[in-house]
């Protein structure tokens, strides 16, 4: 089954106003998702926040099954969070690090995750080992294998899709190696969830974090965490409250037995319902169909951009996705973004280190940047042509 583009655009109000090519930043949410969010906020206004949550109790519970279905997990293995970073950190900060052990990461990690790992490294005297890229810019699985065999590895943490490159890391292969070595595999799927099928069994990850607002088309401030049931007991949340644990006896407490031990008590019920609706929406379209269309549009964009004089397309990798990165000789990426915005074309910019295969060393003003244009299935071939036409006219014309 392929995507009915007219139908999905009919449910995406924003397409009437903007050419939205910033889906890796935050997608335009479909009407049913936003109706769900606003509908619940209205009920909170009308009957009270606790009462509205009680009324929606079954649907709130259903959010866990929807997210679980999206990634092939069990309902008890899902926690909901307010950001992908917090979801990821919930599990990673809970890991019982042995002093002096090593954490393996790729070269295209999310800067926020690297910061967190460096803090943990200082606290626990860990060594962060940055794996080599293979010739295609993906994490080098052979280098991973060598490092795993060297031993003393606490964890492998990898971005499935980097924040600003069109490549998809060979996560299943990484998962297979980690399993064989008995090492915990933490997969950051913030950029992959919603644009391709994900299955935690075939990925072989123990932990997976995803965010709601990007390719999943959920509301802002929503995310989820998957923790494999078999490793749950090894991860004790860095912070607890009356939802993640209960008081026991005069001095004790007991941590919840399911993944919700990583949640906080207070949360946006409306946001959660919207996240669940977004997961259902993606599942109804079919993630295979979503991926096929996203990849097709992105390939069209890369090909058309590459034909513009002075434009360089930077995406690496063998398997590619909906993220397209490019620069124009002699033009600053921030200026390109601003000029495109005048034409109501939304793109974003990102530091060029994702293209160079070097680890983020810090984002400073004046650092080399590239333009990131990220397509979704609701974009059209005509929108792609529009972006390329405006780039050609403004920056390569005359
Ligand atoms: C956006 C992103 C995150 C963080 O997600 P938030 O919801 O913004 O916290 C983590 N990793 C990657 C690769 C991302 O693109």
* Main sheet: strands, sense, barrel: 7 strands, mixed
Strand content: 15-25%
Task: Give, in order, the helices and strands.
Answer: HEHHHEHEHEHEHEHEEHEEHHEEHEEHEH
Named once each, the bound ligands are: pyridoxal-5'-phosphate
Radius of gyration: 21 Å
Question: Please, what is the CATH homologous superfamily of the largest domain?
Answer: Type I PLP-dependent aspartate aminotransferase-like (Major domain)
CATH architecture of the largest domain: 3-Layer(aba) Sandwich
Number of domains: 2
Mean pLDDT: 95
Characterize the overall form: globular
Number of strands: 15
What structural category do the secondary elements indicate? alpha/beta
Helix count from the secondary structure assignment: 15
End-to-end distance: 44 Å
Low-confidence stretches: none
CATH class of the largest domain: Alpha Beta
Helix content: 40-55%
Cross-sheet strand order for the largest sheet: 2-8-7-6-5-3-4
- What is the CATH topology assignment of the largest domain? Aspartate Aminotransferase, domain 2
Could you provide a short overview of the structure?
By secondary structure, this protein is an alpha/beta fold.
Model description:
The protein is α/β, with parallel strands linked by helices. The protein contains 15 helices and 15 strands. It has helices at residues 5-10, 31-47, 49-55, 57-71, 84-92, 111-124, 141-150, 171-181, 200-203, 229-232, 269-285, 287-306, 333-342, 353-356, 381-396, and strands spanning 19-20, 78-81, 102-105, 127-130, 153-159, 184-188, 207-211, 223-227, 245-248, 252-255, 311-313, 323-328, 345-346, 348-351, 369-374. The strands form 4 sheets. The protein has a 7-stranded mixed β-sheet, with helices on both faces. Strands 11-12-15-14 form a 4-stranded antiparallel β-sheet. Strands 1-13 form a two-stranded parallel sheet. Strand 6 (184-188), helix 9 and strand 7 (207-211) form a beta-alpha-beta unit. Helix 2 (31-47) crosses helix 3 (49-55). The site of pyridoxal-5'-phosphate has 11 residues, from helix 5.
